[in-house]
């Protein structure tokens, strides 16, 4: 094997430049490849819930990652549920009063305006089952009285709704219907007659 020797007058350190350049290039390539992988990962990305492989080939679950995600989701659902609970009112074809309970049930009393009262009667009492789904309230009528009047109302307004929560605070609930209609509900103060 031939070992290059420095030529006369050439600094021995410069003779090893090709070796240093090669090593520096390899190290730089390795570091850049690692940086590119880091750039593809968002800073605020949640811990992975995927299984990890070990040298034995057996998958290992990361229980803390999944529990943290579930815990955050459960806390947010509980917070929204608590804020939704109570009595809300809005004007739409008459007065609607919606009483939401934390157990996933609700009651709605509709007192149709004069024109609609001729068709639907002076009052509809509706029982509803509801749940939260990805920032939406999904609710379905479970019963209503008077039944024959509700059948007519059902043809007009339906009996199942999936509405996005646009705004929710102590006094205001704004829901966005599937067709883009915005529904403004106002919380009824405790002790007020509506």
Provide key terms for this protein.
two-stranded antiparallel sheet; about 190 residues; eight-stranded antiparallel beta barrel; about 35% strand; alpha+beta; single chain
How much of the sequence is in beta strands?
25-35%
- Which of globular, elongated, flat, extended, rod-shaped describes the shape? elongated
Helical amount: 25-40%
What's the story with the biggest beta sheet?
A: 8 strands, antiparallel, barrel
End-to-end separation in angstroms reads 100 Å
- Unreliable spans are 13-17, 19-55
- The helix/strand order is HHEEHEEEHEEHEEE
Strand order of the largest sheet: 3-4-5-6-7-8-9-10
Helix/sheet category: alpha+beta
Radius of gyration: 33 Å
Task: Say how many strands there are.
Answer: 10
Note the quaternary state here.
single chain
Look at the structure and give the mean pLDDT: 75
Q: How many helices in DSSP terms?
A: 5
Task: Describe it.
The termini are far apart. The protein has 5 helices and 10 strands, in the order H-H-E-E-H-E-E-E-H-E-E-H-E-E-E. The protein has 194 residues and is of the alpha+beta class. The chain has a domain at 86-160. It is 35% helix and 34% strand.
